[in-house]
Amino acid sequence: MKLSTYQLFENTLLDYFWCVGILVTGLLLKRLISTLISKRLYFFVRQNNVPLNTCVDLLRKPVESCLVLITFYIAFSQLHPPVQWKLTSVNDFGVLMVVWRCFQLLLISSVAWVAIRLTIFITLVFLEHASSHAANNQSTTKLDELFIPFIKDLVVVTICLIAFLAILGIVFHVDVLALVTGLGIGGLAIALAARETLENLLASVMILLDSHFIIGDTIQGDKLNGEVEKIGFRSTRLRTPDGSLITVPNRLITAQAIENLTQRQFRKGKIILKLTQETSSEQIKKLTDFVQTLLAEHPQLYPNDRGSVRFDGIGDGFYEITIVFNTNSNGAALLNDVKQELNYLLIEFLAVNQISLLVPNSAN
Hints:
- It contains ten helices and eleven strands.
- The chain is an alpha+beta fold.
- β3 and β4 (224-231) form a beta hairpin.
């Protein structure tokens, strides 16, 4: 029995042999071939700062998916359906059309997946390149670390849009040009419907261009306070002091005054003491002299402006003493530690000198 003459369902045994052989070979070699392609792309970029395994891990699975789809296409191209099955062509509605269009949909999605993973890898390369320049004191700024992820997101969105249009045009035979033209005619309506989205997008560009704050900075504004974790197209993510993650639309950030706490050379703290009216002027003078000495000798206060203490006023049944101090770091942890230390010392001094408080001291 010859493989090329014996037929089964109108296909020869040789056709089945080629189909199975291509499938087995492709499935067995897909991991090896995808790894080789990933390594070739890695050496094409020629970037030693990013490990080779990172590139392989990013690209191997999407490349494998493309190889599997191509393998199935080549393998089943060796066969043809029997006439008695009465299957319509891929151009007419039926089983073959559904299978063919599913294949096209998966192939376009896989190619887009490869492009997105390659974009992520190139982003890592540029980020490592910027970090190495910053470590070597070369001419680079933290603005690179903001623009590179922003451009990466823009490229990913563009790839997804192109893939979507390709699916519409190739798989579903939609006239993409007519669709785009129709969108142009209805552009005003879309712009009005997406006005806030466009405002947020423009605001994100303004944030990046102004470079008033970057990822890692702690900012404070009207009803917002936290560390910047991400600046996106639509919003900025902040990690609040209590650990919560909040998302603020970029248009709201650009519409208010933002204070960058990270760029401050010091952080200000305040302690207010309200003394009873039985306190004598000599006791008040002794207290202010003691506090002034504390501020002058404390090692963790900002040397150019350590702070001040003053007899701030006379209230209804109390004398008010205001203590202002500036720590030599903008971190909240150091501020709280110094404030706690000063509070302990003040309690001891007040107890020794028999000075009474009208109410417990408050801090802003």
